[in-house]
């Protein structure tokens, strides 16, 4: 009988792997990061490996007063974890894929991508189920440029030019506290993060991707290793989820082709049309949608959609690049990361 792991993958029928490893997971210390690292630990332990966590504070966790897009973005959350792996203090790092730069530094790679949680954004507010229910002159708190431009579009559709959007930073608990203290009337957060922390009761409504297109990789966990660690890659292989991996590879390719910067609002979301593929080499149809805007977004957003037959990471990435070129043809600019 094959056992099912906490991550949903099937364990080897024999239980313990032929080679049990001692593994250290480098992790940030936010409640969400720790939950994610514990989740991977449980999966690896169920496979017979011995696993410990190495908690660390990253520069991104320390800078709380400025918008992330202004201080160097995604790399700030992963650098310290990579140094720990370089120095042999850790073997792997678990990331929210949304926070992982499009290009990993030389010597590192993604060993696997796990099955995606809900990729959608959630509306959290004591005032109702969406922007239409906000009181006059209300404030929505978010620092994500993507959420800002998509919310502006929604507010314009509703004729709600009285509603303001103001920057709000901090981890999930901090943002919820600021909402509860009345610093704003509503916030928009990833449904996945709220669910992982058992905070799903705070969700008033989940936006369909047609209303608010998710960020590339939202809801998916990626596991990073030193490129040469084939032993760690083999241990992680059962945790991988191919349909998620191929979909997020396409989403990340959209962002990479546009320069990979997080100082420009970009949404990219891929879904399988019909049955999801069983593994690499089995072709399936992927629909990739993206939206782009200038960072000082004057409406409207540019949008592009591509449907393509995808059989491996290369074809998924090629499809994502076609979406990016669709946006560039309409006037999107390539903005370098940094
Ligand atoms: N940028 C912070 C971040 N990184 C990942 C998540 C949520 C979980 C996920 O997308 O996997 C969040 C919080 C949020 O955007 O509300």
Commentary on this structure:
The protein has helices at residues 31-46, 59-62, 79-86, 145-158, 172-180, 191-196, 230-236, 242-257, 313-329; strands at 22-28, 50-56, 92-96, 108-113, 121-124, 139-141, 164-166, 186-190, 205-206, 221-226, 266-273, 284-292, 302-310. The relative contact order is 0.15. Helix 8 (242-257) runs parallel beside helix 9 (313-329). Strand 6 (139-141), helix 4 (145-158) and strand 7 (164-166) form a beta-alpha-beta unit. It folds into three domains: 1-114 and 219-240, 3-Layer(aba) Sandwich (D-Maltodextrin-Binding Protein, domain 2); 121-206, 3-Layer(aba) Sandwich (D-Maltodextrin-Binding Protein, domain 2), CATH 3.40.190; 241-333, Double Stranded RNA Binding Domain. The strands form three sheets. Strands 2-1-3-10-4 form a five-stranded mixed sheet, with helices on both faces. Strands 7-6-8-5-9 form a five-stranded mixed sheet, with helices on both faces. The chain is globular and about 60 Å long. The chain is an alpha/beta fold. It has nine helices and 13 strands. The chain binds the ligand NCc1[nH]cc(CCC(=O)O)c1CC(=O)O. The ligand NCc1[nH]cc(CCC(=O)O)c1CC(=O)O binds next to strand 8 and helix 6. The ligand NCc1[nH]cc(CCC(=O)O)c1CC(=O)O is lined by residues 96, 98-99, 189-190, 192-193, 218-219. Its cofactor is dipyrromethane. It is an enzyme of class 2 (transferase). Tetrapolymerization of the monopyrrole PBG into the hydroxymethylbilane pre-uroporphyrinogen in several discrete steps. It holds the Pfam family Porphobil_deam. GO terms for molecular function: hydroxymethylbilane synthase activity.
